[in-house]
Structure prediction request, 256 residues.
Amino acid sequence: MTARLITTPEHVTIALTPAPLAARLCAGLLDLLIISALGGGAASLARWLLPGALAPAAAITTGFAVFWLYPVCFELHWRGQTPGKRAFGLRTVDDRGLPLATMQCVVRSVTRLADLLPGCGGVGLAVAWCDPWQRRLGDLAAGTMVVSERPAALPPPGLVLALRHSSLDNPRLRRLVRHRLGLEEREFLLALLLRAEALTAAARYDLMERTGALLRTRLEVEPIAGLSGEAWVRGIAALCWRTAAQGDRRQLVFGP
Prediction:
């Protein structure tokens, strides 16, 4: 199972890691239990409020609505997550890296019955098993996939302090970092900072200066008088971490 790599028009690389089938099954079972509880509660309420002749029809209609609307409502308002997916760290996303649309959620819900055939999810499991990104029929029809979320790791010591006292923290640079630094460049900055203490003074100075110059070229910004290459590296890395920590899911950088 390999990640699906997508490059946006801003040249940002997005890595979508397919969720394991076992985790999806567990999330689906949890959602099914919640749907059953909601449907049962609604049916009981209908029997209590309505006359005897109307109660069975109302109970069936309510259960039908809960089954189809539950995933649509949660995925739209919880950014691709149902309670089951949230419990197991999963999320439904557009397979092109775009925001999840209403019609995609509806299509996934409508095709759910076909995925459940012949009654135990055999069709959905078979299709997901054969698909390189483990998409079921609903995902293929809607252009979506279910991915595993990677929690952001803590930044290296001093990174937050570097941002707090950095002259690089401004709206223009934050926007440039968000759109021009890809995943590989961000991971390189993190690796460089983690290993900087083990380098000799001469090697560290040379590597930081060259990296700082490359960053300025990549971002198309002018040098700042008195700001060393290492200050550039630490300041830009701090901006990368801040972007990820503030919830930019497209560029969650410092994950495991």
DSSP finds twelve helices and four strands in the chain. The longest helix spans residues 21-49. Strands lie at 4-7, 13-16, 90-94, 144-148.
